[in-house]
Design goal:
2 copies of one chain form a homodimer. Chain A is built from 9 helices and 10 strands. The first copy, chain A, is an alpha+beta fold. Chain A has 2 domains: 3-118, Winged helix-like DNA-binding domain superfamily/Winged helix DNA-binding domain (Arc Repressor Mutant, subunit A, Orthogonal Bundle); 144-290, 3-Layer(aba) Sandwich (Aminopeptidase), CATH 3.40.630. In chain A, the strands form 2 sheets. A 7-stranded mixed sheet of chain A has the order 4-5-6-7-8-10-9, sandwiched between helices. In chain A, strands 1-3-2 form a 3-stranded antiparallel sheet. In chain A, helix 8 links the parallel strand 7 and strand 8 (250-255). Chain A binds a DNA duplex through helix 3, helix 4 and strand 3.
Chain lengths: 292, 292
DNA sequence: CCATATATCTGACTTAAGTCAGATAAATAG
DNA sequence: CTATTTATCTGACTTAAGTCAGATATATGG
């Protein structure tokens, strides 16, 4: 990463900050402080309970209570108890509040429009495309890997998605029980990693012991909407580095012919096809990589 | 421009706002309110006079005075009168101020680095490229066209750059006096347009009367660092629309063989090669367009 | 039922950020 | 030299934004 790349990112941040500040300014044009405006906008046409508002915008509970109070006072918001949990309170927009919400929505739309309008169609498409690219790659950069227990809710949720997907993709469906790694029955993995994007699990991968000097990679999965961000690559790298740290000399893995992206990844990462080394009924190809 | 494009721009704004907010947070980590931190950072290693600070950040003069006062009090900034204009005051960083400036600079660098670091080199390049594209296109969208007097300082500055460039590009140099449009001596243009990017003139173009039913486009120029943003196209469109409004049926223009981008633009915009219609010694090609 | 946790509210604060009306001193136009 | 403009400063304000320590009422696990 050279200094010039960094300078570009900094310039980008600066120029965007200024521009986005302009959106805030336009919000102020409705004579309401930014905090209240944002809150009103976040409550939205469907309403919202205060707890989730607090989580989303990150406000002190006392402060939030007062801000909502002001909106109620101005006749923009109604506040009732949540029927399911008497401690919680739900905020919903009144008719006047909904009008205001629409006005803010219009401002945001108008702002976006003002970025696109002066451009010819070709440049417009390029801008939208570049924005999407920036967004995706910035998301990719904010992925975090965390070791978790394979028994944790998060791990189980990932595995369920993994199984669900294989069921759909494999010609004969998939039954997780038949694809256990060998060794002592239901041997736990040495490391189970979760990939998180803004706190939500969007991928997983596990490293198992195979024999005294080898490990096995299994349960590699990435949520469909986050593919192409290099998450699988990072999971694989992290698992390999753990394997090296544990003194393993060799890594094994198997895969199904329908998982073409996975096979591409393995081959790019230095895995080479070998003969069948297990009796996994879902495996079509077997790979190994010597750890240097 | 469809609703989906707008939704993309809005999502982009939202996700970037959050991320850029994180940079502000990191600035706060040095125990100084954001206003002071930004001011210190803007003063920079070379110092700066208060007037230009005010223009750049847009602060109330009283407020700025007090903010700088605080920085002086904390031993971070020195304040002296400008030797050239006794009303102005120059702020310069003390040794301690410079250390602080470096710390903020490091934070910005670190922030940029944290966006790039988790990515593999290919994705890193894609991110930097996409950021540059967004920046350029957003700049393109914020270009504004203004009619000005051809005698104004801005117009003269543009024309000077235009002449300077032609001198360099034409095989036999360029003398503006020899390339006057025909008609009553030094006839003023019907419309002289300036293209502005963030207040600075980065391009120009003029529409002259040629005869009772035709106009002539001349003095089309775009600053080198802003080429590729579609500025010339927008200037040309605006001049044509003025010509239509004035009842002109036909537009003429001439150009030199070395101005290849210009020729491409004219041809894409519907201009067709015609025979020589004037005695401009620098012209190699002549074009016309019928206004529909 | 009890202890504890959770969601919200209230009161009493602090601080940042900014506005506005002059005052002051230096530059500039005539 | 005088009137006006310009750049900055000072004093007196306002408002937004946020923090913190309880108080209160409701859920939840045992």
């Amino acid at each position: 990463m050279d200094q010039e790349d960094i300078a570009h990112v900094r310039r980008f941040n600066r120029s965007l900050t200024r521009r986005i500040g302009a959106l805030d300014e336009s919000y102020l044009g409705r004579g309401r402080p930014l905090g209240q405006a944002r809150l009103l906008f976040e409550i939205g046409p469907d309403g919202c309970d205060l707890k989730s508002l607090r989580d989303r915008i990150g406000l002190d509970s006392g402060y939030l209570s007062r801000l909502v109070g002001l909106l109620v006072e101005h006749g923009l918001v109604d506040l009732d108890s949540d029927p399911e949990d008497g401690r919680r309170r739900r905020a919903t927009l009144t008719a006047a509040g909904l009008d205001e919400w629409r006005a803010y929505d219009e401002l945001s739309d108008g702002f976006a429009r003002s970025l696109l309008a002066p451009l010819d169609p070709a440049r417009r498409q390029r801008l939208v495309g570049a924005m999407r690219e920036v967004e995706r790659l910035v998301a990719a950069a904010s992925i975090e890997l965390d070791p978790v227990s394979p028994e944790s809710t998060e791990a189980k949720a990932c595995l369920a998605s993994y199984v669900g997907e294989l069921e759909g993709r494999f010609e004969n469906g998939f039954d997780a029980a038949k694809s256990r790694p060998r060794g002592p029955a239901s041997q736990p993995p040495r490391l189970f990693l979760i990939a998180r994007l803004e706190g939500r699990a969007v991928g997983c991968g596990a490293l198992y012991d195979f024999d005294a000097s080898a490990g096995e990679i299994k349960r590699m999965w990435v949520a469909p909407h986050t593919r192409g961000l290099g998450i699988a690559r990072r999971l694989l790298d992290a698992l390999e580095s753990e394997a090296r740290g544990a003194g393993m000399k060799r890594l094994l893995l198997d895969t199904n012919r329908s998982l073409t992206e996975a096979m591409t990844l393995y081959e790019k990462s230095g895995y080479r096809r070998i003969a069948r080394y297990n009796d996994n009924p879902y495996a079509d190809f077997w790979y190994e990589k010597m750890l240097g």
